[in-house]
Write a structure and sequence with these properties.
With 549 residues, the protein is α+β, with helices and mostly antiparallel strands. Helix content is 35%, strand content 13%. It folds into two domains: 1-405, no CATH class; 407-548, Topoisomerase I, Chain A, domain 4. A hairpin with a 2-residue loop joins strand 14 and strand 15. Pfam families: CRISPR_Cse1 (PF09481).
Length: 549
């Protein structure tokens, strides 16, 4: 490296965290494990940094414990009130040199001699994800702010780059036999960029780390001690030569070396980067290794590989997370029959299945309500640039994650169906009015109205979902929800009516019927009665009084 003055991630602060008082602070790896009870969450320049750094911490803790081996060991950790920092220290101390960002022989997550044939060094925009490559107008950073970043920020982006770096042409590293004309041609995005990240979050970082620390006993993700499911700091040093290989387990995936990287700088600041291709990975059938994403059955991939194939279920940035809740609930998208002749269309994230099992065994409190943090990336053309970073947070009672009591989960998914059916009715209503005024089919008016309803239901659904506890009367809850949906339709439909021109009130023939505003309203009323039958049942006297009030 460029300087013998190191920056050791074990001791030097670099992880952004929030305290209980809401104040932001940077801590080292060992400080985080030591004070996790007093810190609420991991942050960063972008939300996906927290996902990548949390998985790095999980790899360290799994290896430090060589476990947890089973639920009993995990329960002892949960009840201890602190993370096992002594075990972590004993594990990392013999390897502390390998956590130095600028070590001459084994710099953390880097290749020390990485270089191109012309000794080119790329600008920091290749490393920093909140400055979209080729789209500088979409950032709040100035060019001068990217001439140098401090070592702590460089460490965060280093971890993030391995996890989420876009595809596209990279620097052609000397020693890489796949380089052509001085270029490293695309091998795909970072592993975490190929999945739809799901990260349960507890009341503090200690709870968050433990909720995601899946025990060996019933879960195959992390391989047992003595296997080659190891992080890079326990393996031989990487070189410019990369390979395409299958992952060896969750620890391997948590720390996957998507790129070969060398930071240019020292602890006083980093000014550039050499960024080349690293280990290539394919996403098919990794559901038994990565617990932090849902999976979808792919018929085309299954035909191609002549076996049942599951692909990661990516997040849609245009769709609120609650609308896809069915893929996250073990009772509605479990993990059984994953390779059978009749495969399930969806597989729930393994970490949510794990939390549901802990609840069923009465290890977690029945009223415990973690927040499910959703993180991922939508890439641009040919996955070569960052287009959008997806981040959402959904409070969810552990009651919803139990497979032995599926009624609550089914009620939650049925409530989404209620919203979708009402949204379709609203879409049809707005389209009918638009066509009554002379617009062509699928004019866009329906899409606008439907999105308006989903936006109006976003906060109510989250509030309603968080209130589903073991004592909730689910029939009453479903009725209440349908009434909320019906109430949310009123302002959306009123806007469509008020915007209708005079010609829409007169109407014209549409699909063999005279269509005007009045007829559209009649059809909408019928559609909503069908979509939300419980909302049209007369309320009990006491409930009716409350609604009037």
């Amino acid at each position: 490296m460029n300087d013998d003055r190191g920056f050791n991630l074990l001791d030097d602060p670099w992880i952004i965290t929030l305290g209980a008082d809401g104040r932001e602070t940077e801590v080292s790896i060992l400080e985080l494990f030591d004070s996790a009870e007093d810190l609420t969450t991991i942050g960063g320049e972008v939300a996906t940094q927290a996902f990548a750094i949390t998985r790095l911490l999980l790899a360290i803790l799994h290896r430090a414990l060589d476990g947890p081996a089973d639920v009993d060991e995990w329960e002892r950790l949960w009840n201890s009130g602190a993370l096992p920092v002594d075990e972590v220290r004993a594990y990392v101390e013999p390897m502390r040199q390998r956590f130095d960002l600028f070590d001459a022989e084994r710099p953390f997550f880097q290749v020390p001699e990485l270089r191109t044939a012309k000794d080119e060094v790329s600008p920091l925009s290749k490393l920093v994800a909140d400055v979209p490559n080729g789209r500088p107008l979409f950032t709040t950073r100035s060019a001068s702010n990217l001439r140098r970043i401090d070592a702590a920020e460089a460490a965060r982006w280093l971890v993030h780059t391995h996890a989420f770096d876009p595809s596209g042409i990279k620097s052609g590293a000397v020693g890489d036999p796949s380089v052509k004309s001085g270029k490293g041609y695309p091998i795909g995005t970072g592993w975490s960029g190929q999945i739809g990240g799901v990260l349960p979050q507890g009341g503090n970082i200690r709870e968050t780390v433990l909720l995601n620390l899946v025990a060996y006993e019933d879960n195959p993700y992390v391989r047992l001690g003595g296997t080659d499911d190891l992080p890079p700091w326990e393996r031989g040093g990487d070189t410019a030569r990369w390979e395409e290989r299958p992952p060896r387990g969750a620890i391997d995936l948590y720390t996957w070396q998507t790129r070969r990287i060398r930071l240019v700088g020292d602890r006083d600041g980093v000014t550039g980067v050499v960024l080349a291709n690293g280990d290539k990975i394919q996403p098919q059938n990794r559901h038994d290794m990565d617990p932090h994403t849902a999976w979808r059955y792919s018929e085309p991939q299954s035909k191609k590989f002549k076996q049942v194939v599951y692909m990661p279920l990516l997040h849609d940035p245009d769709r609120s997370v609650w609308r896809g809740i069915g893929a996250m609930l073990p009772a509605t998208a479990g993990r059984g029959n994953a390779r059978g002749s009749d495969p399930q269309p969806r597989l729930v994230p393994g970490v949510l299945q794990w939390i549901g099992d802990l609840t069923a065994k009465e290890i977690l409190p029945q009223r415990y309500t973690p927040r499910i943090r959703i993180m991922g990336v939508e890439y641009g053309s040919q996955s070569a640039t960052f287009d959008e970073i997806v981040h959402d947070l959904l409070p969810m009672s552990v009651t919803l994650l139990r497979t032995d009591r599926p009624a609550a989960a089914q009620t939650a998914t049925n409530a989404v169906v209620d919203a979708e059916q009402a949204a379709f009715a609203i879409w049809s209503f707005a389209e009918n009015i638009a066509q009554a005024a002379g617009a062509a089919p699928k004019s866009g008016a329906g899409d606008t109205a439907r999105q308006g309803l989903y936006a109006a239901l976003d906060a109510p659904y989250r509030e309603w979902l968080a209130a589903l506890t073991p004592d909730t009367d689910l029939d009453v809850a479903r009725t209440e929800w349908q009434r909320r949906v019906r109430a949310a339709t009123y302002p959306v439909t009123a806007q469509s009516v008020s915007a209708a021109p005079p010609s829409a009130w007169v109407g014209r023939e549409v699909r063999g019927h005279l269509m005007n505003v009045s007829r559209a309203e009649l059809w909408l009323a019928a559609a909503l009665r069908k979509a939300l039958p419980l909302a049209h049942v007369p309320a009990e006297p006491e409930t009716a009084k409350k609604e009037v009030a």
